Amino acid sequence: MGDAAAGDAAITLLIVDDHPVVRDGLRGMFESAPGFRVLGEASNGVEALSLAAGLDPDVILMDLRMPGGGGVDAIRALTRTGARAKVLVLTTYDTDSDTLPAIEAGATGYLLKDAPREELFTAVRAAAQGRTVLSPAVASRLVLAVRAPRAPGNEPLSAREREVLALVAKGTSNREIARELFISEATVKTHLTHLYAKLGVKDRAAAVAVAYDRGILGQPSS
Fold first, then answer.
1. SS3 for 45?
2. Measured between alpha carbons, how far is residue 183 from residues 99, 130, 175, 207, 214 in Å?
3. What is the pLDDT of residues 7-51, one digit of tens each?
4. Rounded to an integer, what distance in angstroms lies between the CA atom of residue 62 and that of residue 164?
């Protein structure tokens, strides 16, 4: 197994995919790299929920379309139960019908299986820190999807809304944002509601994607 760098705890993983060859490949990849530890594997979403409850991984690599229990339903259940694990979708599908439901269900990130090895490692580290991770193709699709049902207004974000959005992009929780900006959690939620409306989105991940697309947050870190 890959050992963590000195002084750093290894990021623990649960791999969820219905193909044994894919699971074996991912396990081998992560166990050969420093800083990661694979706790277990699941072949569908139902099995993933059971293992996640017992193993408590930092990150769950989640496929979407699996016989016996799909990824979106599993992500939704993990979000509903307040699971600590961050979910990074790793799939071959980047259609609107796959991308948006997974993000709305609570996935921290979304990558395609053709992502280079180092990009996957970087994405898992970012997800473990609560940062939103989207492959370029998925980010573009997500931006188009969130814009389609509604036309976002051109009203600019206030300075405070930009501060809140920048912290959201770093994966900062509402409580942590309140502490850092010396405001109440209720005020943070109010700012989020306003910036969602201005960006024409419904959640944190979509807000970050649209903000990067518009140049409000600069360029996503690779």
1. helix
2. 34, 21, 9, 21, 27
3. 468 999 999 999 999 999 999 999 999 999 999 999 999 999 999
4. 29
